[in-house]
Structure formats: C-alpha cells, structure tokens
Amino acid sequence: MGAGLLGSQIAMQAAFHGKEVVIYDAFPEALDKLSERWEWMRYHYQKDLGNAYSEGRFEDAVARVSTSGDLAEALKNADIVIEAVPENLELKRKVWKQIGEVAPDKTLFATNTSSLLPSTFAEASGHPEKLVAIHYANMIWINNLAEVMGTEQTSAEAVEGARKYAEETGMVVSVIHKEQPGYFTNSLLIPFLHAAGKLYINGVGDPEEIDRNWSLATSMAIGPFAGFDIVGFRVAANIASADEDPDVRRFGEFLQEAIEEGYTGRESRQGFYYYDEDGNKLGAVEKWNRYS
C-alpha cells in the first residue's frame, strides 16, 4: 500500500524472496515510476548482495510484482497488506478504514509507520486485533532489520505472523515488547536528528561542520545530516511537521522547500551532500552552508 521510496523497496524485498506482490497506489504517477525504481534497486542489489544476487533472480522478482489502482482488486487474495503511506495520522486512519472495508478475513494488517503509534489508527481498520507494525529501514536489502510491534489489542497470532513473514523475506527481526513510538531505532534516531536540525535552523552551525564535529568527537563515520540523506528528506519532513517543537517544525518546512528544489537525499544523489551512483559521499552541498 504505497509505491514510494520505501513502499517499493518493501515490495521488491518480498518478491526477491519468492512472494507474489501487488502494489497499490491511489496516484498513477507513483506506479509509473516503478520501472525507474527497479533499475535503481537492481544496481544496488547487485553491488550489495554479492553471491545472493543474480540477474535471473531479480528478473523473476520483477515479474512477481503487479500493480493496481483498485484497492479491492489489489487486496482480493492478500495474505498480508503492508501500508507505507506518509506519516500523517488522519491519512493513516483514512487508508486503514478503506483497507478494513475490503480486505479478506485472512489478511494480516501491517503498518510501516516510523513515528506514530499503531494504536492511534488501528481501530479505523475495524480489526485492531489484526494490525501490527513491521518497521523497515531505508535500503532494506542491506539494512535488513524489521522491527515488529503490536498494540495492546494485537493478537499474539498477528505478531507471530508478522515475525514469520519478515523472516521469510530476508529480514532480521526484533520484536518490540511494548508499544513505543519510534520502536528501538527511531526512539534513538529521531531526537538525534531533530537536535541537529534545530542547531541548523537556529543559526548555530552548518550541516557539514555539525557532522564533522560529531564524527570527530564520537569516532562515528556518519553525522546527523548524512543521516538525513539516508532517511530521505520526504520521510524526515513528514515526521518533523508533526512535532510539538516549533523549531523542529521550521526545520521540516526547510526540508520541504529543499524537496521542491529537487534535494531529497541519497536517493536523488543530492541532499545535504552529493553522492555518486554507488551512494558514496562526494562533498557537501554548499548552498546549505549559510553561517560558516
């Protein structure tokens, strides 16, 4: 459910591990872009997976993916539906109401929400006992962590079904034992990124020097603004726009403006840094250096 950056990756990861996949998106232009996304992923699967990759296996995966602009048709035989739409609570509720009205009884419901609590929209599906989170990281074929989390209403069978499905599709699974916004990963990552965004938006420092300071002080290779490039500006902007802190929301507005100028992160080979086709960092985007 959703043919964007991560939705398309979730679909390919499933197909690459033998699953038959239908991608639904309400916007035909998102489905039209899938062939470009397959070629981007083909390159990275080949580069990153070594002997696990073959052209034949990837072509077979592409053949196992079909698309639909009709939700009822897409879901008519689904064992599992994974929702990967933007981080907007009302949109999540709307989408899950639509899914709940047409999905077969057998269908397991899963959301890839990054920062919202599944319990805040599970009731909209009409079947909160079937809804579980399976949270993925960007470039999931190599960053192959799946965080599985239920709500107080999620059945043990749903959690186990999600865990089993994730493992079958090549993921290393962490089960979150209590509902927590951000799971393990984003509970640590989002405050870190927002702190960096506030430093920038308030004129304390520029992305490159903030990253350099962090890396030198901690011996970590990736600073927060390189982290924004990996996460992707669209996801980061959606999360920031819903934050209670006005400075974080201002940074989210800055990200949205950057998106409109064509800067979306490593996916487009330009975010806070420029990247080559292998995803290697080439240098900072100088236009963001406002203070140094």
UniProtKB/TrEMBL annotation:
Site residues by UniProt (Important for catalytic activity): H135
UniProt keyword annotation of ATP-binding present: no
One Pfam family this sequence matches: 3HCDH_N
Any one GO MF annotation of this record: NAD+ binding
Entry superkingdom: Bacteria
GO biological process annotation, one example: fatty acid metabolic process
UniProt EC number: 1.1.1.157
InterPro entries recorded: 3-OHacyl-CoA_DH, 3-OHacyl-CoA_DH_NAD-bd, 3HC_DH_C, 6-PGluconate_DH-like_C_sf, NAD(P)-bd_dom_sf
Domain 3-hydroxyacyl-CoA dehydrogenase C-terminal, chain residue ranges per copy: 182-275
PANTHER family: 3-HYDROXYACYL-COA DEHYDROGENASE FAMILY PROTEIN (PTHR48075), 3-HYDROXYBUTYRYL-COA DEHYDROGENASE (PTHR48075:SF5)
Protein family per UniProt: Belongs to the 3-hydroxyacyl-CoA dehydrogenase family.
Name of the protein: Putative 3-hydroxybutyryl-CoA dehydrogenase
Organism, scientific name: Corynebacterium endometrii
